[in-house]
Write a structure and sequence with these properties.
This protein is α/β, with parallel strands linked by helices and 325 residues long. It folds into 2 domains: 2-121 and 293-323, Quinone Oxidoreductase, Chain A, domain 1; 124-263, Rossmann fold (3-Layer(aba) Sandwich). It has helices spanning 42-48, 115-119, 122-135, 152-163, 175-183, 197-204, 222-227, 249-255, 264-270, 272-287, 304-313; strands at residues 2-6, 17-21, 30-40, 65-73, 85-89, 98-102, 106-108, 143-147, 167-171, 188-190, 210-215, 229-237, 258-261, 295-300, 319-323. Strand 8, helix 4 (152-163) and strand 9 form a beta-alpha-beta unit. Helix 1 packs across helix 11. The longest helix is centred in the C-terminal third of the chain and has 16 residues, at 272-287.
């Protein structure tokens, strides 16, 4: 048995409850993990509420990334052994004290990261790397504008962008998030509530247009960000928690610019070898101390609803984590 956050229908966090559910034995090629920490993202809460574009089967246990200890393996050749410190990801199932997962969804936790950091590392940093390297082809010396720079993928994009040699301008809504972006390596930060935000961006970028926009925000932020691009710019659509928007097609024409979609889930499905190579890269950088996620709040599993609500509100500078001990 395992203790899990579960619901028989989609809804807000209060729809869910803690229940004991059956935990099967791992089959060949699978591992059983005692989860020590699980990350909570906006997408996790959106999925739990039934608002994500793909709906998982019910009953549903939320949570897409976690870290913990291997307790059993289904076969000796799966690459893991009992006691290994690992991170794992999946389509739900992580808000629980234990999980059984394919070995392919599990990876050794770098010694430089603790369980809480490991629990929020894989998805955000793999997304940022895929976006900036594969989709935008961000080059050394270019200027990167990161919207939501104090959020999960935004902060990861700040760190990845600096590692790639870009000048990074972070846009974040509150002073704490702007300070966080600076601590992650941003060269300058701007306030999206500034009455002349585009001019603030240009000034922060040294008086020139930006080359790449990393946009996990959407809504009213998208058009002025796209207008801030220079010739040949690339605008990465990573998410739109602030809502979807429409762009005038002439903007892309007069700038020779591209609107580029970033979907890490489908990337893993259609290009699994490249996705695995990306994960190898970002985990190696984490092991070297180059990439490291910030933790803002830790909640015990029993307080899952409060933790999910905090993550959904998006007002926290740093990541929200559930701990199982």
């Amino acid at each position: 048995m395992t203790l899990a956050v579960i619901a028989d229908q989609f809804g807000p966090p209060e729809t869910y409850s803690l229940r004991e559910i059956e935990l099967r034995e791992p089959a060949p090629g699978e591992v059983r993990i005692a989860i020590k920490a699980a990350g909570i993202s906006f997408v996790d809460v959106l999925t739990a509420g039934g608002g994500y574009q793909v709906k998982p089967p019910l009953p549903f246990v939320p949570g897409s990334e976690a870290a913990g200890l291997v307790t059993a393996t289904g076969s000796a050749d799966c690459g893991f052994a009992a006691g290994d410190r690992v991170v794992c990801s999946g389509w739900g199932g992580m808000f629980a004290t234990d999980a059984v997962l394919p070995a392919a969804a599990v990876r050794m936790l770098p010694a430089a990261l603790d369980f809480s950091e490991g629990a929020v590392f894989p998805v955000s940093y793999a997304t940022a790397w895929h976006a900036l390297v594969d989709r935008a082809r961000l080059a050394r010396g270019e200027t990167l504008l990161v919207l939501g720079a104090g959020g999960a993928t935004g902060y990861a994009a700040v760190q990845v962008g600096k590692h790639l040699g870009a000048t990074v301008v972070g846009s974040a809504s509150i002073p704490e998030k702007r300070a966080l972006a600076l601590s992650g390596g941003a060269d300058a930060v701007v306030d999206p509530n500034d009455s002349d935000w585009r001019e603030a961006v240009r000034t922060a970028a040294g008086g020139r247009a930006v080359d790449v926009v990393f946009d996990p925000v959407g809504g009213a932020a998208t058009e002025p960000a796209f207008r801030s691009l220079g010739w040949g710019g690339r605008h990465l659509v990573v998410g739109f928690p602030a809502g979807m928007t429409a762009l005038r097609t002439n903007l892309a024409l007069i700038k020779g610019a591209s609107l580029v979609g970033v979907d890490i889930r489908q990337f893993g499905q259609f290009e699994p070898n490249r996705a695995e190579a990306n994960r190898n890269t970002v985990f190696a950088l984490a092991a070297d101390g180059v990439l490291r996620p910030p933790i803002a709040s830790r909640y015990p599993l029993a307080q899952f609803a409060a933790a999910m609500n905090e993550a959904a509100a998006g007002a926290t500078a740093g990541r929200v984590v559930l701990t199982m001990e």
